[in-house]
Fold these 2 entries.
Entry 1:
Amino acid sequence: MEDNLFECTVLHEETVKKVKETMPEDGIIYDLAELFKVFADSTRMKIIYALLKEELCVCDIASIVQTTQSAISHQLRILKQTKLVKYRKEGKVVYYSLDDDHIAEIVKKGREHIDEL
Amino acid sequence: MEDNLFECTVLHEETVKKVKETMPEDGIIYDLAELFKVFADSTRMKIIYALLKEELCVCDIASIVQTTQSAISHQLRILKQTKLVKYRKEGKVVYYSLDDDHIAEIVKKGREHIDEL
DNA sequence: TAAACATATGAATATATATTCATATGTTTC
DNA sequence: GAAACATATGAATATATATTCATATGTTTA
């Protein structure tokens, strides 16, 4: 009659109850996972690193990342949708830059972890 | 004769050269993307949040995350391989806990970004 | 040592997503 | 307004990966 589907006799009920209460809503968890998904691809990570330095147009990025304009453009769309980059147009050229101070910090923390392994 | 495959006349050569010099090696970028990949799944994010509170056994985690023991175990393997969690055995029960201080910081920075949108 | 139990794992399936290719859109210049 | 150019995008393909199911492994207890 317990509401856990997990037939398990060593379950620490008090602990589980306490931890459950502190868990963020599923929506928050989902959004967090979605955010980190953006950082979870080499191409996008390269784009982010490049933009950490300065504003760049699409063909600059393609040259730096050594990938096709199309692939870059698709990835920039994702970065745009998740509000990690902003852009401005100058004629037919589009300049992208980072749109959030947290990005640098997240990358830095990740880098610290990597460097300590 | 340029070494860029990107037929693009507005390329900012000086800028591109400068940024290229500051880019981390591909290996670092790859490792970073792999790290963030671990955070990029709702189930793993829930496990991480649960373990932020305290050490838990597999069936506790399954109960908190409301998923099967098998799914949790598969995800814990990934968290183990990437050195984000450690474990200790007590008889047939296995207790998992976070293995790195950066994890909390990375999640916190991500959360700050989410909360500001 | 056999049964009960906690956890781990291999294989299969389903789903997500990165890249490529072709082409569309929008801007500038002649 | 036509050609050249920078960027965007839809469709298709290929690859990665999360979950499920069945079962294996290892530990405790009767």
Entry 2:
Amino acid sequence: MDVQLKRGLLDVCVLAAIQHEDSYGYKIIKDMKPYILLSESTLYTILKRLEGAKMLTVRTAEHDGRLRKYYRITDAGRKRIRDFKEEWAEMTKIYCFVTEEDKK
Amino acid sequence: MDVQLKRGLLDVCVLAAIQHEDSYGYKIIKDMKPYILLSESTLYTILKRLEGAKMLTVRTAEHDGRLRKYYRITDAGRKRIRDFKEEWAEMTKIYCFVTEEDKK
DNA sequence: ATGGAATACATCATATCACGAGGTATATAT
DNA sequence: ATATATACCTCGTGATATGATGTATTCCAT
């Protein structure tokens, strides 16, 4: 997918990946794989940004003797997803505009 | 609409605005207005970029004693629109992923 | 006739952001 | 032993939307 198109989708996708249950970096990438690919460097940049925007919170927990950082979505994060749904309607209009055939 | 989301749509929208007939800066902005807003500085940046990518060609013509730059879509430009249609299918999948309700 | 809006083009500086390259460390399978 | 998977992180770079700003002409209302 075009890099510029991804830009608008990645943040929301990451939020979507943790909306049903807390998750951690490596798992988020795997869960998103069928829909959109992203590298670790990209993901951690996004997680930091979403944390700064208070759309998720972080907690560190031990798992099999190794530390993991678990991310949990906040109300602001859920609002971002709702806003995206509204933006989708606008995008659908744009799609129609772009694919409009010649009206002879 | 979210700035990042616009990024991926603007180029294709500008191409869509000239796909049926040649157009010029001011008119492109007006035609796109119902679907997506963009400033003149943004538009001219995009037109330059699309010209560099050979997705459109430019010609200068006089209109009412004033010079206008008319933009015409190329085959590469039409291909970009076709590619977008394919990307739309991916985006629809992503939309489903994001809006997926809890599966109890 | 004068002033302001609309038309029409353009440049520059800034802030945001995806991503490759690189780094650290442990667990598990071959 | 060694390779692969898991798990985290930082930095530099290139791409790009946008506001601010500038130039110039035409049209319309007062």
